[in-house]
Amino acid sequence: MGTEKCPFCGQEIDAAATKCFFCGAELSEESVHKRLEQLQMQDLRVARRTSNHFLIKVLVILIFVGVIFFYGTSGTRRISEIGVSGRTSTVKLRAKVTFQEARFIVYNNDSFDWKNVKLEIITPSVEGRFGLNVPIILSGETYKAEAVKFLNEDGIRFDPDEMEPREFWILCDTSIEASGSYLTDWK
User: Fold this and answer.
1) What value does the CA radius of gyration of the chain take, rounded to a whole number of Å?
2) What single-letter DSSP state applies at residue 151?
3) CATH architecture group of domain 86-185
4) 20 to 30 Å CA-CA from 23: which of 11, 48, 136, 167?
5) Terminal Cα distance for the chain, rounded
6) Looking at the whole model, is its pTM more than 0.85?
7) How far from 31 is each of 7, 23, 35, 38, 124, CA to CA, in Å?
8) What share of the chain is helix, strand, coil (3-state, %, to 5)?
């Protein structure tokens, strides 16, 4: 007659057997049919679980990306909150910033004055952000700011010997009914 595998334990048994010699399972047509249904349900649960794991992974990645995006744009919101109220648009300033002899030199290359200027150094360190307020930087003029005049929220001064700027930000009022903004990566 031959042999076949038991649908319950997988052991080789006699094809004419009505009961498995190894696991003792009844091999009637009804019990085998129930076992096949159980295996299909088990396969379906495994497929759902795999699908659920995939969906959970996608959800975690989306949350992670959302947190990164929010954290990455939170600085933008933070400095824009410092800006002037009532201004609904922002103009990209034509600026240039250099660092020489412990000073930041800010060039206003626009055809208008910058008023209520907020300068900000962003560092990769724990101290983070260092700011300096300047009343006005005239059109076509340069402004020299000593690095140690920049302070963070805790009153700690920017130390050019110990700290490294990552970005430099300028935010100001303009005479053209828009606030001005300039951001540069430090190289």
Assistant:
1) 35
2) B
3) Sandwich (2.60)
4) 48
5) 82
6) no
7) 10, 14, 6, 10, 67
8) 30, 35, 35
Residue bearing the bigger pLDDT, 81 or 68: 68
Q: Is the pLDDT of residue 78 over 60?
A: no
Provide mean pLDDT across the span 29-56. 84
Residue 76, both tokens: 């933008």
With residue 169 as reference, give the H or E element that holds it. Answer: strand 167-173
| Amino acid occupying residue 127 | E
What single-letter amino acid sits at 43? D
Indicate the pLDDT class of residue 82, thresholds 50, 70 and 90.
Answer: very low
Name the residue with tokens 């208008």: 112
pLDDT digits (tens, 9 = 90+) for 103-134: 899 999 998 889 999 999 988 876 688 899 99
The label of the residue with tokens 């430099």 reads 168
Going from N- to C-terminal start, the domains of the chain cover 3-61, 86-185
User: Where does residue 45 rank: exposed (0-12), middle (13-18), buried (19+ CB within 10 A)?
Assistant: exposed
Tokens 């903004």 correspond to 181
Using the 8-state DSSP alphabet, how is residue 8 labeled? T
The two structure tokens encoding residue 81: 């909150």
Q: Which residue has the tokens 């497929």?
A: 47
Q: Token match 């055809």: residue?
A: 111
In terms of pLDDT, which residue wins out, 85 or 39?
A: 39
Distance in angstroms (rounded) separating the CA atoms of residues 24 and 26: 7
